[in-house]
Amino acid sequence: MKPIALSLLATLSGVILLPAAIETPRGFTAASGQAELEWEKKFSAIPDPSRMREAMRRLSAHPHHVGSPYDRQNAEWIRDQFKSYGWDTQIENFDVLFPTPKERLVEMVSPTRYRASLAETRLPNDPTSGQQAEQLPPYVAYSADGDVTGPLVFVNYGVPADYEELERHGISVKGAIVIAKYGGSWRGIKPKVAAEHGAVGCLIYSDPRDDGYAAGDVFPNGPMRPAQGVQRGSVADMPTYPGDPLTPGVGATKNAKRLTVAQAQTITKIPTLPISYGDARPLLAALRGAVVPSGWRGGLPITYRFGPGPARVHMRVKSDWSIKTLYDVIAKIPGTTEADQWVIRGNHHDAWVNGAEDPISGLVAELEEARAFGILKSQGWRPKRTIIYAAWDGEEPGLLGSTEWVETHADELAQHAVAYLNSDTNGRGYFGVEGSHSLEKFVNGVGRDVIDPETKLTVNRRVQLSRIRNGRGDDRKEAREREDLRISALGSGSDYSSFLDHLGVPSMNFGFGGEDNGGIYHSIYDDFYWYTHYSDSTFVYGRALSQAAGTAVMRLANADILPFAFTNLAETSGRYLKELKKLRDSVADQITERNSEIGENVYFATSDPREPTVAPVRQSPAPQVNWDVLDKASDSLTKSAARYDAAYAKALDRMSGSNASRDAQVRTINQRLLQAERALTSEEGLPGRPWYRHMIYAPGFYTGYGVKTMPGPREAIEQHQWANIDHEIGKVAGALNREATLVSELARELDALR
Ligand SMILES: [Zn+2]
Fold it and tell me: From ligand 1's centre to the CA of 394, what distance in Å?
């Protein structure tokens, strides 16, 4: 039946579909690759959409946030599932600070009175929306307690550039309560930047232009955010450090040394609350002052103005700051010959409320992989390396469960972890992959062997064709011509963060999406009803996620030589370096231009005397930057990587049958290979945040939504910290040089294999 459907589709779309090439998976010899592909075929037939649907119904039946009874019940149920599939399974507990709301108030006290409802209402045809007694009401976790009153100021997304715009209009937020839109940055940046500018409170709302009625019909008639829908979330200062605020750098075990709440660095300085666009509208409508620039305007039927005031707002936040227990489910299949090399896969199980999409849609795919591995095991399959599957608790408040686990097991992980593969949410559409560039070639091999359930193209081919259609200029050309689809770097949005950023464990994140737009993120409406009406309602993309992630895990666990490729890393690092140079030049040009304009009286001339704006202050010009060490390091990695990839292909061609002395050499090579990403970390970490040790990626400190590449020098340039730049460049160069040395030594060892 499949071939007919394939050729029919091929004719309809005019695309010539070749049968999927049976390519030996990267890392295997011709013979071992054949055996691997046969097991993969058996594996891929097992994941079952109807079981995923039933698991989602069960896991999202009640709110299951950290500390709730259903969170624990889910963890125990997940543990029992793994056990029934034949995995060696345990729950690991951690004790973390997780504040839950006791008091929440937002009211406008003048010129008119309005009290915000701060409530999401039940919808008659959505059964779980009525579980009020079990729901966490709308709030943001790790907001400081406080009771404040002040004039209201609209600050757009609330990122530093927005405050520069406010300054030009002569508007200060000192003593004010700011109201910011969701979007444009990580949520926790908004109260942080507001407090730095002297604001006393922060409101964050979801504008209907972004995920409400302007984007589509609202729930339950459509997938978008209804007027009362609120996005919960964490506002902890995660770019400083993720995980439990009381135990930075160490696992939050029973007897861990803890900071006091007052000492914790990642709690906001000012009270913060999220509100719906229903509640935001009267507040924004009561603002006066100049009309905001067009980029700031949203989708409400009002004129958006800056303020300050005359609207005055009173807000109060008070939380229960008690310690709650996390339940991480950790399941293992021990490896046979390489048991001390670990392949790790995870998805979180906690949610803000019912969380059908986030995170259950990813978790149910992971559970089906686990069941499939159990079945393969009963048929005689065994992984060479140890496979560890995790269902993390406490991701939502701040990557708590994964971070505390990584911190507790840091020494073992640094030695044994081959890679970490994460998923979080899953939907309909395109195969999304982000991750370590040394795994780019590997993951392209996986994506060429998984079929998109709706178009029947391979998932990679579909992404490639969409990039040809949507890409511009070089991107389109690259999509046509580059051997591998480019994957982007990982930020800090999910549980891979501490694996990658802290330890240098090569990591990837998988998920389908792009045809599943919705406005239910972190609200009570992210539930079974919404998911089964508006997202992957047949769970066929759930099955595709199981197939992709399961195939990746199998290949990593059984490859003869670990499938890293460093040419992709070298080329991408070269691009990051080019971007840095461009950034330095454009910052330098901006400073020069602005200083000239100040001298030419441009700002005086263009300030409307009736609505005057203030001229910016003169800045000292950007110095020249010496890139020599980084250029050299980048070249040296490029050369070593090319040598390595050639040696790698030849070595696998030469290998066949078993040979005890060669097996021992291969084991040594694999042991060193799994350290390759660690070479990109530095002991010193990033300025002001020593937990972030990866020199090529880090979450953005201020404006970045996700990832900053070569973050040390990049932040020095963005923040005009010119005195630090040589040192930060040196750290990145050091990382690339360590990598180049390791890779060229490994190339020699591969050449010596007989
Ligand atoms: Zn999630």
Answer: 10
